[in-house]
Amino acid sequence: MLDKTVHTLAEAVREIPDGATVLVGGFGGSGAPIALLEALLEQGAKDLVVVSNNAGSGTEGLNALIGAGRVRKLICSYPKSADKSQPLAAAFEQLYRAGKVELECIPQGTMVERMRAAGAGLGPFFSPTGYGTLLAEGKESRVIDGIGYVLEQPIRADYALVKADLGDRWGNLTYRLAGRNFAPVMCTAARHAIAQVREIVPLGSIPPEQVMTPAIFVQKVVCHAS
Amino acid sequence: MPADNTQLPRLGREAIAKLVANDIPDGAFVNLGIGLPVLVAKHLPKDREIILHSENGILGMGPLDPSQAADPDLINAGKQPISLLTGSSISDSVLSFTMMRGGHLDLSVLGGLEVSASGDLANWHTGAPDAIPGVGGAMDLAIGAKRAFVMMEHQTRDGRPKVVESCTLPLTGAGVVDRIYTDLAIIDVETDGLWVRAMVEGLSLAQLQERTGAALKCDPECRTLYLGEV
User: Which PROSITE patterns match (chain B) (predicted)?
Assistant: First the structure.
């Protein structure tokens, strides 16, 4: 019997080793797998390379993991706060200024497509985004049929941590509203995708056409009702 | 020397937003960038269906009614709470950026730090050496939409022009801007240069040129923007 559910958050993140590349879902707080990140903090893995759109909101989750010095490098499109009144990404800013965490800033769509390429079995690809800018420096650029492109490498990861709404024992997932964002593509780009779900439902209760991430892309499902 | 701006008539931020809103046609799919462009949403003409896109996967977002509770999973690109309009859809980031980068959006409205005579845009990096880089979806938006409008003040706070011959700040995209809306004028970026399509009342072309870092050409049918009317 295929059963990917695990009982505790600790069990879900137990095997993540030091030095792992970890994809972390969420656009701001929406879709951020806070419970899994807290469990990872507790677990103690360090020297992590984290790929995430933001550098963590509030004091929990990714911000706490970065603050504890567990992240060696962040690959990110927007590691700061759009709202200056809210101290988002505070831990990242502090450690970045102290030279204690590395940053690879990439356009959001490029981040997405680099993961998509990895998940879809593609190699490097040409994207027009960022051509002629600071973010293309050190990358091959080429003009093809009059349009400038930057050569981008796939992002393959060891783990993905995502927040979903419903999950079943096979690993089929649904997401709530715009909390979906990066989660589906991250599940495809990681060898081990771990989903915290609001509710684990019996196999068959998610209508097949409403499955948003098919089971094949998910390795562990843990319930965290929040 | 920066020109003396003390007596100059200028459009307010809401007035610039209203000008942009009035130029968006019925049925258009549009992304409004963070900052000044966000103001456009509340000035969209009521008799047009204009569908707003947000990079986190929302197509068809609307304002949050004060009586409605904010939902943490319904936010715009600036992480502000929004609502969904009838007919809206939600997709993942792959499909959302396919809409943006793939040329499917009719228009993106972007904020600007500098725009060059050839339509280069700088809007993601202040150039400060200690700035933490953060680009978000700006580069995808700048290159992807069918048309790109930029909304910005005509000059910096210390009076330097923001419409320039070539950008001094790190670029967001090269040759991407179609039209610039400022507190002084509406300027189209054409292959033969910058064309002034409208100017605020009481401003002369010479005064506008004095505050612009690139050569301007004046449309013979250049409109006057009356402060009381926009």
Answer: COA_TRANSF_2
